[in-house]
Amino acid sequence: MEWSNSRKLKGSAVFTSVIGENSDGIYLLRYRNKFLSRSIIIERYRHQMGLALSRSIVLKKSRLLHVELQKDRIILILSRFNRKEMRNQVVYQVYDNDVEPIGEEQIILESTLNDFYDKGDFRIRISNDRKRFLITHTEQSADGNRVLVSALLDDSLKLVHSKRWELDVKYDAFALHDILVDNSGNAYYLVNDHELTSRRNSEVPLDWRLFWYNPASDSMHDFEIIDSGFVLMGPHMSWDRGQNKINITAFYSGVEEVHDIIGLFNFYIKPIGIGAAKAQYHEFSADFKSVLTGENPTVGLEGVRNFKILDVLPNSNGGLSIVAERSSFTFESDVIYVNGIPQSTSRNIYNYEDVLVMALEPDLRIRWYHLINKSQSSLNDGGYYSSIITANTRSRIYVIYNDRLRTNGDVIQYTFTSDGEMNHKILIRSSEEYISVIPREARQIGYNKVILPVSKDKKFALLKLEYPK
After folding, report:
1. Residue 208: what are its φ and ψ, rounded to 5°?
2. Cβ-Cβ contacts under 8 Å for 275 (sequence gap 6 or more)
3. Which H or E run includes 455?
4. Cα–Cα dist 236/234, whole Å
């Protein structure tokens, strides 16, 4: 464990995102709002965790899409509206390691406007080896269908190829859930669509499809990944480098009871041939469900609910390790009287509870599992200090979270070995200072390194964890 100095943050850029690490140090992105517009701050810390520099960047009516840290430069990818040409554009600007601009902005791609308020639905995904950039957006065809537009670039942001496909899906009945690109340039697009007449108000998408673009044959392939009688709940895409396959993993339920989890679903495809695709289902046993619900579940809520997959880690034997968390959001409103005048009040309640960690065989049978019992609840803060941080090395999974948010709680760490052994300890004791880690801002920056932004007596600090290899 290695700490930076604590400091009081100035200005309104209060949110942090860890960018990464290179030979010059560790880089952070600071910003004011989730739209990443107007201005941002990039900071560099030395490897020994001392603050080295801080630079403010004005975005000039652009919105930041991605920051990529390379060996000797920083690349900012932004989207903006070109009012003169009435088009949305994706551009990039290069900076050196001292956050000084190099050259001028360069345009990567442009898109037409689907309506007056269209700001573009650009998505970016980087391959695991950081050598390929996949940038995707959609447009509307003359027939009212969705057009999927995709560009693949190399690590110097030179265009490798650009493709357009008109999908057999109406424009308003389409949602792009996730994209992925592997080290060979195969591109994957996970989408859901629904019938406008009967399923427009459905809370859970019922139809999921995977589109795979194969650059070797310059062909697009379409897969329906789940039976019509089941519903996927928050599917998660991952790439298994050892097996060279793409996994789409999710909990699944029935169409009638869409909130009750039946079991675990996985669809995989190996980009070595069209036939190498398979959907797998593993229904949870009654005993396993009783562990998740407790011995005395609330009346009417006997089913397994509210678990969301946070991380999917491919195992060397072709199986998967999964980290999931039970969480929920509640909105409450009330009317109070002040001097006889009614006033409306509201509050948002964020609940983050038990964490499930399990390892699966290639056929989805559960090899081992552990349930971490925790309870985190907060009001009107977006769950900022709630949830967990996950990290992994070759043989261990780590889960870190704040214990007892409302009091002077400690920071707890659980460790799981590949054989299913579990132990836990107090990672940071809050006996003298009030310390909380910020889960959504943390990032694993190397094989065995994790950077944690921390609130330390209402001041900002960084904590670097380095685990045994």
Report:
1. -125, 135
2. none
3. strand 449-456
4. 6
276 DSSP 8-state letter = -
Q: pLDDT-based confidence at 430, cuts 50/70/90?
A: confident
Contacts (Cβ under 8 Å, ≥6 apart) of 115: none
User: What is the distance between the alpha carbons of residues 121 and 432, in angstroms, rounded to a whole number?
Assistant: 47
Q: Where are the beta strands (DSSP E) in 207-319?
A: 207-214, 219-224, 230-240, 245-254, 263-269, 277-283, 307-314
Asked if 64 and 91 touch (Cβ cutoff 8 Å), the reply is no
272 or 430, which is more confident? 430
Whole-number mean pLDDT of the chain? 89
The secondary structure element, H or E, covering residue 293 is: helix 286-293
Contact (CB, 8 A) for 213 and 150: yes
Number of H helices, E strands in the chain: 2, 33
List of E strands, 121-258: 123-126, 132-140, 145-154, 159-170, 174-181, 187-193, 207-214, 219-224, 230-240, 245-254
- Amino acid identity of residue 139, one-letter, is E
Query: Quick one: DSSP state of residue 7?
Result: B
List Cα–Cα distances, 262 to 291, 298, 301, 311, 328, in angstroms.
14, 18, 14, 19, 19
Dihedral sign for Cα 449, 313, 402, 8, please.
positive
What pLDDT is recorded for position 89? Answer: 92
E strand spans, 275-408: 277-283, 307-314, 320-338, 341-360, 366-372, 376-379, 389-392, 396-402
Contact assessment for residue 260 and residue 304, using Cβ atoms and an 8 Å cutoff: yes
Q: Which residue has the higher pLDDT, 31 or 433?
A: 31
Distance between CA 354 and CA 345 in Å, rounded? Answer: 30
Count of beta carbons in the 10 Å neighbourhood of residue 426: 13
Phi, psi of 291 (to 5 degrees): -65, -40
Helix, strand, coil % over all residues of the chain, rounded to 5? 5, 60, 35
CB atoms within 10 A of CB 283: 12
For residue 398, give the 3-state DSSP assignment. Answer: strand
Q: Largest Cα–Cα distance in the chain? A: 74
| Spatial distance between the Cα atoms of 425 and 17, rounded to a whole number of angstroms | 26
> Does the pTM exceed 0.85?
yes
